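chain below, 164 aa
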Amino acid sequence: DAFLAGRGNAPPEALQPAFDMLIPTWRLRNWTTFMSYGHMPIFVKQFTAILQWTTDNVEVPAEVFRVVARDLYQENRLIRGGMVLGGREVRLIDVKASIYNAASKADHIVVPPCAHALKGRVGSEDLTEVTFPCGHLGLSIGVEAHTVVWPAISTWLAERSASS
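prediction:
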């Protein structure tokens, strides 16, 4: 609340250092990698796109920031209870839908034990938890996403679509 006082939004210049602190050497590591592969045009294209995406932050509305920071991170209300959205308490035990819960082994933001905290907490009888051999970005946009993650999710969805 003190961080947001008088701001209206959480400014990107205040958020980026928080991401940088997760892996303090990430920028150095990126440029070291660039020095090794910078002669490859496809690498340069992908490198600049990812670098721009990971550093092009936008303002986050104050209330969204407050809910994520306080309710989810500090107080862990989604797991412990007390998470309220739209005036209603979110109760994981009420989730009955099939769930495919993907985590990435080398994720530095959502570590696998946190990503896989749903087991025994949701009401679904169809919970699939998978940990893929990649990092945070690799789960959605990396090489592994295209060759392993998305095909696995597609197969899982197809199996359930055929049975419904």
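The CA atoms of residues 137 and 157 lie 22 Å apart. The mean pLDDT is 90.
thats it, cya
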